[in-house]
Specification:
Helix content: 55-70%
Shape: globular
Order of helices and strands: HHEHHEEEEEHEEHHHHHHHHH
InterPro entries: Aminopept
Organism: Zestomonas carbonaria
Strand content: 5-15%
Largest sheet: 3 strands, mixed
Protein name: Aminopeptidase
């Protein structure tokens, strides 16, 4: 049996039950699930083993170099970081587009409460993914007609949480060598631990594994610590967005009428742009990497993704320091993931304060 046919058999055996479950539960329309299945199947039709590409001297040398580096990072992920050892990221798919999916976020005009969507396995999340930009934009247009704020964001990679063999994608190769390795660590971390219905927990966990994994990856290769300037800038930019979001939350919860809230919303976005330019032109010495984002039309939905990847980073960093090794860290993180949401949040806040009185074991 060929690599493609055996892979498609596994996909169909897994996707068909999920498709039926989604249709019967009503958590998404059948047509939406159709495009998910079609998109995943298309990825697998495009996939080929990385080892075959590396052995083919007629292939693009730079592609082979990047894939060879990715395989080193992939081996490091399992051998040194304790991440799953499977066929994910040992196959490659060439796309005809810059992103693998486009995520659609939506909020009411005068609220930051996201429109959530629930799926088998992944649980409820604040977005819907589409394998075509036109599909995402079409869905956004329909929501806009009903008064929703919307935002469509291109995504280079995603995890199927271990259900399928996730491929390396040409969209991932847009990143430099270090970011490519970090992205592999991040997506494999989702296979290691994912808590349905708690995006901030799952993404913060994966982001910590990504950052600490990248630090250890550099050290193992004899490279000096990475320049933290880009990370500091990202953190400062995120802090601006989160502060703006808090002010908008207070505005929308106030007793002002809708007209006053709309005026306040517009004024808040202008304040955000002004504060960004001050930061850019002073502390960042004119670095314009976030200009395109800040100069695009702003609305509530564009603010949603910020903070999800960083909310509990310091908590997981503290947990790792307490654990002392990856196996203990994963076990304790899994224990946190099994707690009821309110108790989990209290434990994470305690970790942020370096409180060691936390669960230390997880039931198998």
């Amino acid at each position: 049996m060929s690599f493609l046919s055996s892979t498609l058999d596994r996909v169909l055996s897994r996707w068909v039950p999920l498709l039926l479950a989604g249709a019967l539960s009503g958590c998404a329309s059948l047509s939406y699930y159709d495009q998910l299945v079609d998109g995943q199947l298309d990825l697998l039709r495009r996939s080929e083993p990385v080892e075959a590409i590396l052995a083919d001297e007629s292939r693009d040398p730079e592609l082979r170099r990047r894939l060879a580096l990715a395989q080193e990072a992939r081996t490091f992920a399992s051998a040194e970081l304790g991440l799953p050892d499977n066929r994910s990221y040992r196959i490659y798919a060439e796309l005809d587009r810059p992103y693998v999916v486009w995520n659609l976020f939506a909020t009411p005009e005068l609220s930051l409460t996201p429109l959530t969507h629930c799926f088998p396995i992944a649980g409820c999340v604040a977005y819907r993914g589409y394998y075509s930009q036109s599909g995402a934009r079409g869905a956004a247009a329909l929501l806009q007609q009903d008064g929703w704020d919307t935002y469509v964001a291109g995504i280079e990679a995603y995890s199927t949480l271990g259900w399928f063999d996730d491929p390396l994608l040409s969209s991932m190769l847009r990143w430099d060598d270090e970011r490519l390795a970090a992205l592999i660590f991040h997506e494999l971390a989702h296979q290691r631990l994912y808590v349905a219905d708690d995006t901030a927990f799952s993404e913060s966990f994966a982001s910590f594994v990504e950052r600490e994994g990248a630090r250890q990856w550099r050290a193992a290769r004899g490279l000096p610590p990475a320049d933290g300037r880009a990370e500091r800038m990202r953190e400062q930019f995120t802090a601006l967005i989160l502060a703006s979001r808090e002010r908008l939350q207070a505005l929308y919860a106030s007793d002002l009428d809708d007209a006053a809230k709309r005026a306040g919303k517009a004024a808040e976005f202008e304040r955000l742009r002004t504060e960004y330019r001050q930061l850019r032109d002073t502390e960042w010495q004119g670095d314009r990497r976030y200009d395109a984002w800040i100069n695009a039309p702003l609305n509530n939905a564009r603010l949603l993704p910020f903070g999800l990847y960083e909310q509990w980073l310091s908590a997981f960093a503290a947990l790792y320091r307490q654990a002392g090794d990856w196996a203990t860290f994963y076990a304790r993180a899994a224990t946190l993931g099994k707690l009821p949401p309110a108790e989990r949040e209290r434990a994470l806040r305690a970790l942020q304060g370096e409180n060691p009185a936390l669960p230390e074991t997880v039931n198998p």
